[in-house]
Amino acid sequence: MSRRGWVLFAIMTVLWGIPYLLMRVAVRQLDPGVLVLGRTGPAALLLAPLVIGRGHARLIRAHLGWIAAFGAAEFGVPWYLMATAERHITSSLTSLLVCAVPLFSVLAQRIRRTEERVTPRRLAGLAVGALGVALLVGLSLHGGSLEWIALMLIVCVGYTIGPIILATKLQGVPGVAVVATATALVAVAWTPWSVAHWPTHVDAQTWWSMAVLALLCTAGAFVVFYELVATIGSTRSVVVTYANTALAVVLGIAFLREPLTLGIILGFPLVLVGSVVATSGANRSLDAVLTRDADVAVNQ
């Protein structure tokens, strides 16, 4: 990988590694729905000039329904559920459970019959990854945490559906147009709820957390990620999921005094190994679609 690729990879590790810590801080004072609006609204406003300047309005109108579906699957529902879960479980566990997304993706490919067969190697990867998730969940259960872990598994489903929509229904729409429009639609959808649940007091730490989440971890991160995919390809870019998870765990332990549990020690390596093995030899046509979409997004 080139020096440029490593720099982009490092930036993405930080931008998608710190949100779990920031969400944990923000939901102490903010309703999860308010947090969703706080992330998506400013991000949409920041990206809007790029979309307008590049003349993507016609493409957006033609694909508005699928962009809305992508926004719901990738932002609107998962971010609300994740923020809700972070009120009850640690940011470390939250980030680790998101590592199950590649496993969900392989299962989705089989359900959609996008590949001819699942090799024994990939089946073994699924089994190892599933065991890792089971250890994470089973060894982290305590007083009523099961329902919040279940919410995170729904988040994983949303994160699985979102890329499928991108790859199959939004191939010709530049990534910046998709993200800008999706975040705008999600912000509009969550506005009535947020008005009704707006807090009476928000301290500076919460405001800073919201600002970083919206401007850097949402708007900035997706722009950088498309650049990363265009530089090193979509398959290798997926590895950033594991790097930012490791960072999230370290930050949770260092700044939030979250425990390094037996579930993390035993489960995370298994999820990591299982996901890498299960997703190896991924569908090349899908990889080409994602890479082509990224090329369009960053070059227009």
Q: What does it look like?
A:
With 300 residues, the protein is mainly α. It has one domain (3-299). Helix content is 80%, strand content 0%. The protein has 15 helices and no strands. α1 packs across α13 (240-255).
Distance between the termini: 24 Å
Number of domains: 1
- Overall structural class, as computed from helix and strand content, comes to mainly alpha
Can you count the helices?
15
Query: What Rg is obtained from the alpha carbons, in whole angstroms?
Result: 19 Å
Shape: globular
What fraction of the residues are assigned to beta strands by DSSP? under 5%
Q: What is this structure's SSE topology?
A:
Blueprint: H1 3-15, H2 19-26, H3 32-53, H4 57-62, H5 64-85, H6 91-98, H7 101-112, H8 120-138, H9 146-169, H10 175-196, H11 204-232, H12 234-237, H13 240-255, H14 262-279, H15 284-299
Helix pairs in contact: 1-11, 1-13, 2-6, 2-11, 3-5, 3-10, 3-11, 5-9, 5-10, 6-13, 7-9, 7-14, 8-14, 10-11, 11-15
